[in-house]
Design brief:
about 50% helix; 60s Ribosomal Protein L30, Chain: A; 2 domains; binds guanosine-5'-triphosphate; alpha/beta; Tubulin/FtsZ-like_C; CetZ_C; about 400 residues; Rossmann fold; cell shape; cell cycle; about 20% strand
Length: about 400
C-alpha cells in the first residue's frame, strides 16, 4: 500500500524519518512521499532521511522556530494559519499514485498534538483518498499536561481521520533506559509493525504466494473508522532450498516429509496468530468486540500456507466475535523469519483510554484551581499586609 506520510511535531517527524529508512532498507515501496512539519527548527534539522525540501517550518512569526512548548491549542492555531505551507509541500506529491495519507504524531506535546488533527481535517476536505492517523500516546510518567494534551488531541484526531492507529508509549517504556535510547527502540517497533502491515499490500508478482493481501483489504479493514491497534509475533526459520514442496515432489521428494512439513507450517502459523493477538498490542485492549480484523502472515513462501491462515482467521473470528476477519500472505524471500501481524480495527474496550481521560480530567481541574488561586496568591505576596507601601507609579 502506497502512502503519503506526514510527520507532525518531533515524534511524528522522527517516526516518518524511520519509515523512509525502513522503506529503503526493505525496498517495501510503502512511502510514496514523506513530509515533516514542525514549529521547531532544530527538530527538522535533526531528521536524516526526509528530503530537506519536504521539511516545513510553520509558525515562524509566532514562535520564531522554537516550538510551542506543549501548548497544543497554539499548535492547532498555527497549523490552521499555515496549512497552505504544508499544502505546498504536499502539492508535489503524485497523489494519484497514493492509496492513502498517514498523518503521524505524538499526542502529548503541542505542535503535533494540536496540528495533526487540523491537517487531517484539511486533507479530507481536499482529497478523496482515505486519511489515516498514527497517534502516539505519552507515557503515564510524563505528567498531567501531556496526558491532558493527549486526551484532547485523541478525541479530536479520531473524529477527523478515517481511522486512528494508536501506539501507546506507556505500554512499551522500559525502566532504566535513557529517554532517547528508549524512543529509538520504540520507533523501531512502530515502523516494523506498520511496515509489515502496509508492505503486505505492495507485493508485486514474482513471489509464490497462496493469497496475497491486497491494499484494498487493508483499506476495507480500516473503513468504518474508529481506533485500531496492531499485534505482532515472529519466529525464526531457516530458508529452505525448495519452496512450497512442489519442486521436491517433482524431483521425487519424500511425501511423508512434506506432510510433516505442512503440519508444522500450519501449526507454526496458528500459534503465531495467537501470540500476536494475545501479546502486547500497540494499544493494549480487549480484542473481543473488535469490529474488523486483518491477519497478515509474512515470511519465506515455503513457510506460508492457506490452511494455517484459514485456521488463524477462524480463531480470530471466535476471539473477536467479528464477522469481518480478513487474512493473507506477505511473501518475503530470504527473510529468515515468519511473522504474524494482526490489525484490529474498531476496538472499543480500551481501559488505557479511560484511564488517560480520567487523569486528564484531574489535571484539567488542578490547572483551573491553580489559575484561580494564582492571582490572589501573587497579590498577597507582592503587597504588604497593612498596605503601607506604595508602588512607584
Ligand atoms: N514513540 C515516540 N514517542 C515520542 C518521541 N518523541 C516524543 N514522543 C512522545 O510524543 C509526545 C510529544 O512530543 P513531541 O513530538 O516532542 O512534541 P511536539 O509535537 O514536537 O510539540 P512541542 O515540542 O510541544 O512543540 C511526548 O510526550 C512523547 O510521549 C519518539 O521519538 N518516539
Amino acid at each position: 500500500m502506497k502512502l503519503a506520510m506526514i510527520g507532525f511535531g518531533q515524534a511524528g517527524g522522527k517516526i516518518v524519518d524511520k519509515f523512509v529508512e525502513y522503506d529503503k532498507r526493505h525496498n517495501s515501496g510503502i512511502v510514496k512521499a514523506a513530509v515533516a512539519v514542525n514549529t521547531a527548527k532544530a527538530d527538522l534539522m535533526g531528521l536524516k532521511h526526509i528530503p530537506k525540501e519536504k521539511r516545513v517550518l510553520i509558525g515562524q512569526s509566532r514562535v520564531k522556530g522554537h516550538g510551542v512548548g506543549a501548548d497544543n491549542e497554539l499548535g492547532a492555531e498555527i497549523a490552521e494559519e499555515d496549512v497552505d505551507e504544508v499544502q505546498s509541500a504536499i502539492d508535489s506529491v503524485p497523489v494519484h499514485e497514493v492509496d492513502a495519507f498517514l498523518v503521524v504524531s505524538g499526542l502529548g506535546g503541542g505542535t503535533g498534538s494540536g496540528g495533526a488533527p487540523v491537517l487531517a481535517k484539511h486533507l479530507k476536505r481536499i482529497y478523496t483518498e482515505p486519511v489515516y492517523g498514527l497517534g502516539v500516546l505519552p507515557g503515564s510518567d510524563e505528567g498531567g499536561i501531556y496526558t491532558l494534551n493527549a486526551a484532547r488531541s485523541f478525541q479530536t484526531f479520531v473524529r477527523e481521520v478515517d481511522n486512528l492507529l494508536v501506539f501507546d508509549n506507556d505500554a512499551w517504556r522500559k525502566t532504566g533506559e535513557s529517554v532517547q535510547g528508549g524512543y529509538d527502540e520504540i520507533n523501531e517497533e512502530i515502523v516494523k509493525r506498520f511496515g509489515i502491515l502496509f508492505g503486505a499490500g505492495e507485493v508485486t508478482g514474482g513471489e509464490v504466494a497462496e493469497s496475497v493481501v491486497d491494499s484494498s483489504e487493508i483499506i476495507n479493514t480500516l473503513a468504518g473508522g474508529g481506533v485500531s491497534t496492531v499485534g505482532y509475533a515472529r519466529e525464526e526459520v531457516e530458508e529452505k532450498q525448495n519452496s512450497g514442496g512442489l519442486l521436491s515432489r517433482l524431483t521425487g521428494g519424500n511425501d511423508e516429509d512434506d506432510g510433516l512439513d505442512t503440519a508444522r507450517t500450519t501449526n507454526r502459523i496458528t500459534s503465531l496468530v495467537r501470540k500476536a493477538a494475545l501479546g502486547r498490542l500497540t494499544l493494549p485492549c480487549e480484542i473481543e468486540g473488535a469490529e474488523r480484523a486483518l491477519l497478515v502472515l509474512a515470511g519465506p513462501p515455503a513457510y506460508l500456507n492457506r490452511k494455517g491462515i484459514e485456521r488463524g482467521r477462524k480463531w480470530l473470528e471466535e476471539q473477536t466475535g467479528s464477522m469481518e476477519v480478513r487474512g493473507g500472505d506477505y511473501p518475503v524471500t530470504g527473510s529468515g523469519f515468519v511473522a504474524s501481524v494482526i490489525l484490529l480495527s474498531g476496538v472499543t474496550n480500551v481501559p488505557r483510554i479511560k484511564e488517560l481521560q480520567q487523569v486528564a480530567i484531574e489535571a484539567q481541574e488542578n490547572i483551573d484551581e491553580i489559575n484561580q488561586e494564582s492571582e490572589s496568591n501573587l497579590e498577597s505576596l507582592v503587597n504588604d499586609d497593612e498596605d503601607e507601601l506604595e508602588s512607584l507609579f
